[in-house]
Every structure is written in C-alpha cells, then in structure tokens.
Amino acid sequence: ILNVEQSPQSLHVQEGDSTNFTCSFPSSNFYALHWYRWETAKSPEALFVMTLNGDEKKKGRISATLNTKEGYSYLYIKGSQPEDSATYLCAPSGGTSYGKLTFGQGTILTVHP
Amino acid sequence: DSGVTQTPKHLITATGQRVTLRCSPRSGDLSVYWYQQSLDQGLQFLIHYYNGEERAKGNILERFSAQQFPDLHSELNLSSLELGDSALYFCASSVNSGGASETQYFGPGTRLLVL
User: Which of A85, A93, B53, B59 is the right S-S partner for B100, CB 3.0 to 4.6 Å?
Assistant: First the structure.
C-alpha cells in the first residue's frame, strides 16, 4: 500500500499570491506521479504526469517538480486567481500497482479576490 | 468535459437494495477504472478493466462487482447496500492498458445515497 501525504491540508491565499504545496510518496517502486485539480461539483482534471527524477512540467501559471530519490513533488501556482480555487490531488503509480492511482487526501486551495 | 460519461448522476435507494452504475469511456479508450469517494476517505481505487478483462482490483467489497462489455462501456453493480456505501463513484478511462504513466480521464461521477 502506498502512503501518500499532501501538505498543507488547506491553504488560503489572496489573489495574486504565489503558492506551493507538497506531495510525499514512497520512493521505492515508483514509476509515475500524477497531479489532478478537482473543482467543487466537477470531476478531477488531469494536470501533469511526471516520471523522471528532476522533471519539471508547466501548464500556464501552474508548474510541478519531481524528486523521485527522496519521494516528493511540489506544485507551484504563480499569481493565484480565484478560478484556481480547487482541491489539488497527487497520485503515485507504479510497481505492482501498475495503473492503479493511489490518491493523497489533497490540498484545498482557496484564492480570495 | 473529459468525454467520459456516467449515468445516473444521482441515485437514492434503500439499504439492502441493488443498483447499477454505468460508464462510457472516451472514444477510443480501452481501459476503464472505478473509484469511490466517501466522506471520510479520499479517492479510493476499486477496479480496472482493460478491453473487457479485469486488470487490477483494489479494496472492492465482495458485494460490489463490475464488468466491461464488448462496446467498452462498463457497469459497476452494488448489492445489499449499506448506509456506508453512500459515496461519489467515479469512472475514469485511459487510452491503453493502464500503464503507470497513462493519464486517466474522469467522468462526472454518480452520487449514491443509501437511506
């Protein structure tokens, strides 16, 4: 069973602030790390899939980095906007779990205008 | 809109009953996954089907079963329902056999309430 931890549990920022949060996972048996954004009353939306140590992905104002050796990934949002308010989920996959995603509890981001 | 469809959107039923949730994957996707989101738990993997065959199983109760049909749509059957089965059930799909780096696209979910 993969133990996935996300911190902080929730975050309140002002519009325009930059923010970041962490996903920690066991580094053994790792193959890929998925990030999702889940807005209220919608379904989880895929942001990134990362596989290589040191990998960095970017989508607009959102970027993510990956450290597979120490088992963590950071998600950054630059210049947060109210529409960024959502729960951000990470899910490692790999090894015997193959395509099964083991989700963390998520970080709830609220961006205040 | 991910292209994954789920029906019904909401379902209210009584304890002891049986329900069927339906999922149609994105056009061309061969894999279907089922996840459960209950109040006190995160998003939990239930089961994965690839091209009609069961590929992986999570902590799925024996009262629950699933199948994927030749047209690739999938159904999740929940029987002898208990209050604790009340949850949001998501279906996701991916292009191929579910490799670890394959993106899963989530449907809108079915909200089940067991009274």
Answer: A93
**Residues A84, B98, A96, B48, Cα dihedral to 10°:** 90
Of B31, B101, B109, the CB nearest to A51: B101
Nearest to A32 among B44, B101, B106 (CB): B101
Beta sheet of A45-50, edge-to-edge order: A10-14, A107-112, A86-93, A32-38, A45-50
In sign, the C-alpha dihedral spanning A107, A105, A25, A42 is negative
Q: How far apart are the first and last CA of chain A?
A: 40
- CA A50, CA A38: separation in Å to the nearest integer? 18
Give tens-digit pLDDT for A13-30: 999 999 999 999 988 878
Q: Are B115 and B13 in contact (CB under 8 A)?
A: yes
Contact yes or no for B62/B80 (Cβ under 8 A) = no
Give percent of chain A with pLDDT exceeding 70: 94
Q: Which of A43, A68, A88 to mutate to test the interface with B (most CBs of B within 10 A)?
A: A43
DSSP, res B80: S
State chain B's mean pLDDT as an integer: 95
Write the residue in A49, A89, A106 that is nearest to B103 by C-beta: A49
Does the CB of A71 have a partner CB in chain B at under 8 Å?
Answer: no
